[in-house]
Write a structure and sequence with these properties.
Elements lengths: L1 H9 L4 E4 L2 E4 L15 E4 L6 E2 L2 H10 L8 E6 L2 E7 L4 H12 L14 E10 L2 E11 L6 E3 L2 E3 L8 H16 L4 E2 L5 H21 L6 H8 L3 H10 L3 E4 L2 E4 L3 H10 L19
Parallel strand pairs: 1-3, 9-11
Antiparallel strand pairs: 1-2, 3-4, 5-6, 6-7, 7-8, 8-10, 12-13
Helix pairs in contact: 4-5, 5-7, 5-8
The protein binds acetyl coenzyme *A (ACO) and zinc ion.
Protein name: Histone acetyltransferase
EC number: 2.3.1.48
GO biological process, one term: DNA repair
Length: about 280
Amino acid sequence: LREHEEFTKVKNIATIELGRYEIETWYFSPFPPEYNDSLKLYFCEFCLNFMKRPEQLQRHMKKCDLKHPPGDEIYRSGTLSMFEVDGKKNKVYGQNLCYLAKLFLDHKTLYYDVDLFLFYVLCECDDRGCHMVGYFSKEKHSEESYNLACILTLPPYQRKGYGKFLIAFSYELSKKEGKVGTPERPLSDLGLLSYRGYWTRVLLDILKKHKGNISIKELSDMTAIKAEDILTTLQSLELIQYRKGQHVICADPKVLDRHLKAAGRGGLEVDVSKLIWTPYK
Ligand code: ACO
Ligand code: ZN
């Protein structure tokens, strides 16, 4: 019995229903105790309220008038929209999102203090509403120059380029703020893969255009990627040499082309002209 108790404490909710998907969960999430005897939870895909029984969700859907995340739509391109949700103005939504996200994030501590965060929720929109694909959170004020706290693409939407889109979006916000940024550590394995992929693609494209004649500082100014992240990325691509006490970029065009070929798909582009946003004050 003890062992069973321990086991159920490790992972409580096995599946969730969200919009038209039934999704298997990955990790424990600290839902309020009254939900812990449920194997499955039913989420309203718009306000993210969760329920233990399908009838409760059906009843809820009849009266829930949201058709997209609460907050401001700050980006729309084709069927893709991004909403900015202030955790202080939409506390319950912020908390629901954290409960949901924790099901797929292993190492993150859940933020009860959603007041301090903005949530950027990416949606695919159709005539039924705006369906959440993924999100990232961002501290309103970060001392450590973090421009992203947690990132998630919901499993049914993974490996389609949305993760890199969310990452690119976080750097576009940093550019508008005139700051460099970096994701909060630690990164998960999938998080690291996605960031490495993003950094590699962005830096290689610029190096190719400038034929390698550019400094790490200049790269950082152009991309809002923190200098340390640029250095580790270029080191892993073996494009850095250490000369006279300094790191210098050595970008042989043939080496660049080889890396670019290996870097794979560019992913979904953020069309900056469609971003309507001013930094949080
Ligand atoms: N196996 C191997 N490589 C993968 C996988 C996988 N399952 N998933 C992503 N990658 C790598 C690939 O290199 C991929 O690029 P490619 O498809 O061009 O080869 C790259 O990551 C990014 O792929 P995307 O499709 O853009 O990313 P996705 O939408 O799948 O989202 C994310 C990536 C957000 C990390 C997703 O896997 C996720 O939500 N994971 C669970 C939560 C998590 O770990 N978040 C990061 C925590 S760290 C932090 O929050 C700061
Ligand atoms: Zn609802």
